[in-house]
Amino acid sequence: EGNSLLDLSKIIEESGELTPEKIERAFAGMSFVSGDWEKYHSKIKSMGVIVEEWISGKGKTSPSGQGYIHPDSAIVDIISTHEQVLEGQVYFGCKFPSKPEYRACITELSFKVGRNLAKKGCIGFFSLDFVVVPTEKDYEVYAVEINLRPGGTTHPLMTLKYLLNGKYDTDKGVFLGENSNSPKYYVASDNIRSSNYRGLLPSDLMTILSGHHLQFNVHSGKGAIFHLMGALSEFGKCGVTCIGDSPEEAQSIYDKVVSTLDAECSPKNMYTHMVIPLLHE
């Protein structure tokens, strides 16, 4: 049923203490991704519930580590770190790799958890979500969730790997292309959406992309690659992975893709980019 947030700060400010009765009354004011307390409460007995402490902090980030446990040998490889892009508590996209300030820490903790999972018989992809809070001298790193499956960061990583035929350098935490010693970076999202995109076909998307020279270039190893194009025409939604030679360049390509789509699909420009075939008898 999703996550919800119970804010007890007002109770503490008003009375200075928490009691079971005060906490119970606060349930009605909880914020939900969907539904309300009555709907949520009715599912607790059948589905159960997990209560976790909310981690606060200025400049808080949500990185993740991803690994793979080989079925034949139980060897654990850490294959990426990411900065997760969230809207509230909902996953929106990611940036590769995670920030250099704590990248090594995320890698080390992910490896430790991976070895533990391997001992318990787990195989295949796994990922860990973290919350990182800056302190005066360093960072506080909290592990908050384990996912025993390919996740939202798996697809863009595989896209990068197969396009460039390179490898992930675990020690440095960067991805190197097959014919380059320069690291590659990307910004990816599964949620580029607008009601104005409805009615677009994948071929229209490619026309827009190539017309603005934003498509992936095999020679430079940079550009944008779309996915989830099947949802474009009906739902006005698609995904994209934008690859660059720096975090700033990858972000710039992503921003240009979104702004270009918005401009081309605005009501005043609608259909002007589409290629209309001639009909022959």
Structure description:
With about 280 residues, the chain is an alpha+beta fold. It is about 30% helix and about 30% strand. The chain is built from 8 helices and 12 strands. The protein has helices spanning about 10-15, 20-25, 35-45, 105-120, 155-165, 200-210, 230-235, 245-265; strands spanning about 5, 30, 65-70, 75-85, 90-95, 125-135, 140-145, 165-170, 175, 185-195, 225, 235-245. Strands 3, 4, 5, 6, 7, 8, 9, 10, 11 and 12 form a 10-stranded antiparallel β-sheet that branches. A two-stranded antiparallel ribbon has the order 1-2. It is globular. The chain starts with a strand and ends in a 17-residue tail after the last helix. The model is unreliable at about 270-280 (pLDDT under 50).
Describe the protein's topology.
Blueprint: E1 4-5, H1 9-15, H2 20-26, E2 31-32, H3 37-47, E3 63-69, E4 76-87, E5 90-96, H4 103-119, E6 124-134, E7 139-147, H5 154-164, E8 167-169, E9 174-176, E10 183-193, H6 202-211, E11 223-227, H7 232-235, E12 237-244, H8 247-264
Antiparallel strand pairs: 1-2, 3-4, 3-6, 4-5, 5-10, 6-7, 8-9, 9-10, 10-12, 11-12
